[in-house]
Amino acid sequence: MADTRNLExxxxxxxxxDQEIQALISRRAQCAQRVAxxxxxxAEAARxxxxxxxxxxxxxxxxxxxxxxRIIERDAGPLxxxxxxxxxxxxxxxxxxxxxxxxxxxxxxxxxxxxxASIKHFGHAAICVPQTTIDTVFSQVESGECNxxxxxxxxxxxxxxxxxxxxxxxSPLKISGEVEMRICHHLLVAPGTREQxxxxxxxxxxxxxxxxNWLDRHWPKVERQxxxxxxxxxxxxxxxxxxxxxxxxxxxxxxxxxPLAQHIEDYPDNTTRFLVIGREEVPPSGRDKTSxxxxxRNKPGALFSLLDxxxxxxxxxxxxxxxxxxxxxxxYVFFIEFEGHLQDPGIAAIVTELEEQSILxxxxxxxxxxxx
Length: 372
Prior knowledge:
Layout: H1 7-48, H2 61-74, H3 81-99, E1 103-107, H4 113-122, E2 127-131, H5 134-143, E3 148-155, E4 159-160, H6 162-170, E5 174-182, E6 186-189, E7 200-204, H7 205-210, H8 212-218, E8 223-227, H9 230-239, E9 243-247, H10 249-255, E10 258-261, E11 271-278, E12 288-296, H11 302-313, E13 317-324, E14 332-339, H12 345-357, E15 358-368
Parallel strand pairs: 1-2, 1-3, 7-8, 7-9
Antiparallel strand pairs: 3-4, 3-11, 5-11, 6-9, 6-10, 12-14, 12-15, 13-14
Helix pairs in contact: 1-3, 2-3, 11-12
């Protein structure tokens, strides 16, 4: 049947629908408050029975992943499933803040892609706390000052972030989730800066590497300086004449910068993956990944022996990388990421077999695969 409504009628329908949506969001928020009360009651009851003190867990990564997947799967359009899921991500974030606002540490300063990844994963209601280094992100979560942390782990063109991997060697933290971000770099300057005024281009070393070919073609004679983050580069560009920053939209808006050029990354599918780190193990969500650190004895066929159990079980590896061992010269540890959860019987059997033939095996956690 053809839609014969005029403009005023459609606007009236939109207003009525908005009222219904608002009422339903309020009902959802009330349910979230009741969930928080139940969790606190259960924790108090456990304490009164003399059981070991256990803090109420308000954020459940596996539960949120399941909810977002269902939203995408049942979407009937015309909005794309991902777009609808982003709306629900913010509703869930606001409802969770009614239970207990999350403190999330991330690699700062403000305006970094890590901050954008934190907001994408936890929503705007989370309290995102910038840290100066990856080390301090880990330490803030380990100490309990922050509930979770977000750190970069790999880029689709430049590979792994070794400093993140190294922190896992000694940290008791677990991986709670992952975030994938499409990375768009711009060449940003303070308002009024002309091309001929630029004498230095600043960015994180990964960002400079991701734009190397473009910078070689267009700015071959201008000095490039690697700094701690793209947010720091944007901050410098805003404060120092003659400095341009390679950074994204968030940094441009935050520091009032203007682009001399946009989308300067060398590869259009440039994507960075971030890990969410926390203190608790995450139950299965149904579509999970697991990460482990493993070190084998230095002998012929050692790597094959580590990988063969996955082949025999038909388990797909999604990432493998190496880092030098800190305890033995010319020895290496392997970071292996694969599909499945540590509670899956097949995965548990693989881990048991690896434990028997390795000198070190450290599970870093199982976590939901990125949904958005």
